[in-house]
């Protein structure tokens, strides 16, 4: 068997590894062929390594080195979750540099998109390309209401004996419900070496950080000169879709894709359309 066949390109088979940085042990998974600039994935609120849709990760890993990681205090990573997005960005920087990289592409979703923006502004030389999905700018309209929406939908999901993401990420119409179930099932494709779920305290701290981010003075996003791809559904109730348009206006030369009849998880619902776009954008 030659080495080229040994490359793992399915996220469900990616082994979980750890690296030390600043007194924190970060858990991460990597797949795809090593060499070149890696694509680092920044995950959403309450999410661990097990929350990435393989239909998004796997196509990118076909030709790129992909790395997903647990933020400090999340999943299998040690330490306490920071109470600010900027501190999360500092942790992400510590993690990336501990792996020895001085240039990365970033793929981010939701809270991960806030962290990615903060990181790019602090360390512009680190990031070559930026993918911002289901996210919005600091101080963006109604971002501080995420906590209320989240708690409401967790309650609705509990009563319906469903995964909260089915309510938070997807429209509650026939199309949305089908897409939601398919998405949740895809997250279960990995059966061995699963991550530890987020702890309630860590989740609440993340919500507090999001609330602060939503109520803060906006950053000057004209400083972001990296090629940027922005995507969302047209009916995002968590991070309102208008904020994707706001990002697009403020990041010069950025590309915007809005998927119809879909919510916060629009990229997951439309993975067959979105994944090739992301692959092409990152390869350009």
Describe this structure in words.
The protein is an alpha/beta fold and 284 residues long. The protein has one domain: Alpha/Beta hydrolase fold, catalytic domain (Rossmann fold, 3-Layer(aba) Sandwich), CATH 3.40.50.1820. It is built from ten helices and eight strands. An eight-stranded mixed β-sheet has the order 1-2-4-3-5-6-7-8, sandwiched between helices.
Query: SSE order in H/E notation?
Result: EEEHEHEHEHHHHEHEHH
Q: How many distinct domains?
A: 1
**Strands in their spatial order, largest beta sheet:** 1-2-4-3-5-6-7-8
Structural class: alpha/beta
Corresponding CATH architecture: 3-Layer(aba) Sandwich
Distance linking N and C termini: 31 Å
The top level CATH class name: Alpha Beta
Full CATH superfamily name: Alpha/Beta hydrolase fold, catalytic domain
| Helix coverage percent | 25-40%
Q: What is the general shape?
A: globular
The low-confidence runs, each spanning 5 or more residues with pLDDT under 50, are none
Strand percent estimate = 15-25%
Count of alpha/pi helices: 10
Rg over CA atoms, rounded to whole Å, is: 17 Å
Q: Main beta sheet: strand number and arrangement?
A: 8 strands, mixed
CATH topology: Rossmann fold
Summarize the structure in short:
The chain is an alpha/beta fold.
Index terms:
single chain, 284 residues, Rossmann fold, 8-stranded mixed β-sheet, 10 helices, globular
Indicate the topology.
Elements: E1 16-21, E2 24-31, E3 39-42, H1 54-61, E4 66-69, H2 85-98, E5 104-109, H3 111-122, E6 127-133, H4 146-159, H5 164-168, H6 174-186, H7 200-214, E7 228-233, H8 242-250, E8 255-259, H9 266-269, H10 271-283
Parallel strand pairs: 3-4, 3-5, 5-6, 6-7, 7-8
Antiparallel strand pairs: 1-2, 2-4
GO molecular function: hydrolase activity
Protein name: Alpha/beta fold hydrolase
Domain AB hydrolase-1: 39-268
